[in-house]
Amino acid sequence: MSLALLHTSPAHVPVFDALRDAGHPGLALRHLVHEGLLDRAGESGPQSVTGEIEAVLAGAVAAGATAVLCTCSTIGGVAESLGPALGVPVLRVDRPMAAVAARAERVTVIVAVASTAAPTRALIAEEADAAGRRPAVVRTVLVEGAWERFEAGERDGYLNLVAEAADAVADADVIVLAQASMAGAVTRTVTRIPVLSSPRPGLAAAAAVAASVGRADLS
């Protein structure tokens, strides 16, 4: 079985490799890094890069991917929607996290890129609807200056700003770190409010799907 991961930053590669090594040994990962997708989606909306995403995913499938995981929350919904036409499961990394967040009444979503806010809010609402729950009250916090630090390679400064933003939240039942790149901030927070991040549960879900596809192919 082979799982392709679509990233919009090379910084995600070692993170997901480490998660694979720790929890899913034997899972073959193929990393596809396309940094420009996030910039263009931020400028013109996620739908504007649909054709580019489709071409990338089609190439991954042609190369043998049995499933695809999109690690970018901004374009994850677009990638996910292309799965049926491509004939392989395409998952978004933040869906398992959103399913947990949707159980809460008050959710604070922390983002470093403004274009991530709307897709994340929509996903939480979708998961609440699927579970037959009343939509949560969702508040979004944009961490000013954080993304500039991420792009400059200042990982510690980036994660510290995200952690500080989480610690400043006082009126939520759960805090959502909307972007996969924020996961490292979880261990830097001191808040007593549960803080959710997407890489670990997202990869676990994708690994399970890839395994099920592999078993089906052998039957």
Structure, described:
The strands form 2 sheets. The protein has a 4-stranded parallel β-sheet, with helices on both faces. Strands 6-5-7-8 form a 4-stranded parallel β-sheet, sandwiched between helices. It is globular and about 45 Å long. The protein has 10 helices and 8 strands. It is an alpha/beta fold. It starts with a strand and ends with a helix.
Give the biggest beta sheet.
Answer: 4 strands, parallel
Give the proportion of residues in helices.
Answer: 40-55%
Let me know the average pLDDT. 94
Q: Which percent range describes the beta-strand content?
A: 15-25%
Note the gap between the termini.
Answer: 14 Å
> Over all CA atoms, what is the radius of gyration?
17 Å
- Helix and strand composition category: alpha/beta
Low-confidence sequence ranges: none
Order of SSEs: EHEHHEHHEHEHEHHEEH
Number of helices: 10
What sort of overall outline do the alpha carbons produce when their principal axes are compared?
Answer: globular
Q: How many runs of DSSP E, i.e. beta strands?
A: 8
List keywords for this structure.
10 helices; globular; alpha/beta; 4-stranded parallel β-sheet
Write the layout of secondary structure elements.
Blueprint: E1 2-7, H1 12-23, E2 28-33, H2 36-44, H3 50-62, E3 67-70, H4 76-81, H5 83-86, E4 90-92, H6 95-101, E5 106-111, H7 117-130, E6 137-142, H8 146-151, H9 155-167, E7 174-177, E8 195-196, H10 199-218
Parallel strand pairs: 1-2, 1-3, 3-4, 5-6, 5-7, 7-8
Helix pairs in contact: 1-10, 6-7
